[in-house]
């Protein structure tokens, strides 16, 4: 209740001015204290208050989300039962995590992939990404920007399942064959051979959907209404061989890509933990998934550069290879048309796309492993001190 207390002006006049009884004078203004260089401006306090409130709300939401995640995770683990490392149940969990990681992320970046494929087939079609999306949106509507999302989702879900589940399986199998000492000594070779073996199988599952996707994205209007309509159209004209005519260049693109993806990821993550204080086990779930995203993004940049020429050739072969044309003859004809520099069309777009894609894939994959009570991928094992 402010009226119970005298004002500053009243106190000032009472103690510092001698005013005769009965006279009324306006109180002299108080001097404004000078603000020191380290003193904050008064008008900023409301802003700080708003920021603090926002931080508190964000922390409360984060704590609530963490609580819900823990509940859902506990339910899932109780339903699945104990998952022993390197058991059939473990590989099944890794397979499903890979399905989620690849299927969701590749589908999300369909607009980037659409522009990349069209520019690889015809470098003069668009001058840039935003110009391309604007042109596609005006001509084909918003759905046109997501042309090919169906075969992308089905194909890369299948590929991710075989790739991540297969990698975990082959990594353990080859490590057992090599023995503990050789597995530790030649761990990079272990990552390379395990990832190549997994990708070889994964591409067989991906290839039919990749053929449909590329044709849908590079024909205007798209040659088919959807995934299974596209498969029926291709097989009706070219037989089932038409779905696999891009398999060799797909292997040429995906196997080096995956070898780089897994080996560089494992190496980068181990380097990150080596430079952080403590051990990997000292860090929480959020920190570990952040490391997974960082390692995945950096690995993705390397992957994009290594595999880009083969990626261009896959797009060209699926779009331009004539029925019955030999694989080698088609590659020679396409290379004469585009030259060496043509093999690098769309590389900047692909670096952004693959870097983001790979980072998110590893983050989703490892987050799912945490959800199921499993350790995240990568990082040196805890050091055992010798007696």
Automatic annotation (TrEMBL):
Membrane topology: Multi-pass membrane protein
Compartment(s) where it occurs, according to its Swiss-Prot or TrEMBL record: Mitochondrion inner membrane
Main localization category: mitochondrion
Gene Ontology CC annotation, any one: mitochondrial inner membrane
Gene3D superfamilies to which the protein is assigned, alphabetical: Mitochondrial carrier domain (1.50.40.10)
GO molecular function, one term: phosphate transmembrane transporter activity
Function comment: Transport of phosphate groups from the cytosol to the mitochondrial matrix.
Family, similarity comment: Belongs to the mitochondrial carrier (TC 2.A.29) family.
Protein name, entry field: Mitochondrial phosphate carrier protein-like protein
